[in-house]
Design goal:
Helix content: 25-40%
CATH architecture of one domain: 3-Layer(aba) Sandwich
CATH class of one domain: Alpha Beta
CATH topology of one domain: Rossmann fold
Radius of gyration: 19 Å
Number of helices: 9
Largest sheet: 9 strands, mixed
Length: about 325
């Protein structure tokens, strides 16, 4: 089981200049080696969502044949290598050998390839996944364009009926920056998480140069950039970026809700893609003109967050 974590919050904006172009900087709290939280990849319906119902689908149906992964008898070994979210899932499963996991994926139309489905399947994990996203024109188009998302239910995430304490892992995938009332939505996702469960959270950062540009650009310009970055994909998604969609916002939320922040990363997706080149240069210029208030070192934040077993737990 997880022991108590003691750590000081790290300011993602102030400490990431060393990440470099296309880099990933990983920040872990003190003594986090054995406390990496597991994440689930899943989502819930905009109606009453129950784990294992017809809304469920095998983990990572986007990348496999849709069959349910077999459950193994041997517990998986902890993994220290590989992407952050994949390690978190494997470590979580290692503490629950033979247990099927229920995973809720919120924001499934913007979820990437992480966690690594092939690696998870090799451990013999059995994961039932449910999918949910907000009901907008863009998400509707994305579901139509990707048949593997057919089981996703779209709706108002503020009122989505989620069973309390029903999911081992909740994956909130690049959702917070594109919706309003983000804190209320995240509250509902945390309520659906079992005590001891893990919130896998990725979000754009309003406190970085790329987030500032995304919020300020006219929709027509954003649409042109989207077409160059992701040709043929529905978009762009709205750029709302409430305070919660930032490193400071997430830290404050976790502290107020008694959640424990584990390993985290700041990722520079813009530099990794290197296109359009003008946007990358604009990001650097905005960072320089902001006199350090905004950073061009990253444009996406990733967190593994644990919901304590006890409601009286606190972050020290």
């Amino acid at each position: 089981m997880f022991r108590e974590l003691r750590y000081e919050f790290v300011n993602e904006v102030d400490g990431l200049s060393e990440a470099g172009e296309g880099g990933v900087m990983e920040i872990s709290p003190e003594r986090s080696g054995r406390h990496r939280a597991g994440v689930q990849r899943g989502a819930a319906a905009a109606t009453d969502v129950r784990p294992g119902t017809s809304l469920g689908r095998p983990f990572g149906a986007r990348r496999d044949d849709g069959s349910v992964l077999a459950r193994g008898s041997d517990p998986p070994e902890p993994h220290e290598n590989g992407p952050l979210f994949t390690r978190a899932v494997l470590d979580y499963a290692a503490h629950r050998p033979g247990q099927p996991l229920a995973l809720l994926q919120a924001g499934c139309t913007t979820a990437g390839a992480e966690p690594d489905v092939a690696r998870l399947g090799a451990t013999g994990c059995h994961v039932a996944v449910s999918l949910v996203d907000d009901d907008s024109l863009t998400t509707r188009a994305a579901v139509v364009a990707h048949p593997e998302l057919a089981s996703c239910t779209l709706g108002d995430l503020r009122t989505t009926q989620l069973p309390p304490r029903a999911f081992d892992i909740v994956h909130c995938a690049l959702l917070l920056e594109r919706i309003s009332n983000a804190e209320l939505v995240l509250d509902r996702l945390v309520e659906a998480l079992k005590p001891g469960g893990l919130l896998l959270l990725s979000t754009g950062d309003r406190d970085c140069a790329a987030g500032f540009i995304d919020r300020r650009l006219p929709r027509s310009v954003r649409a042109m950039i989207w077409r160059r970055q992701r040709p043929g994909e529905p978009g762009p998604y709205p750029a709302v970026f409430e305070h919660l969609a930032s490193g400071r916002g997430i830290q404050s939320y976790a502290l107020r809700r008694g959640l424990v922040i584990g390993p985290r990363q700041a990722v520079n997706q813009l530099a990794a893609r290197r296109r359009p080149r003008g946007l990358l240069l604009a990001s650097r210029l905005v960072a320089r003109l902001s006199a350090g208030r905004l950073t061009s070192a990253h444009d996406e934040l990733r967190y593994v967050i644990r919901k304590p077993e006890s409601g009286f737990a606190r972050v020290l």
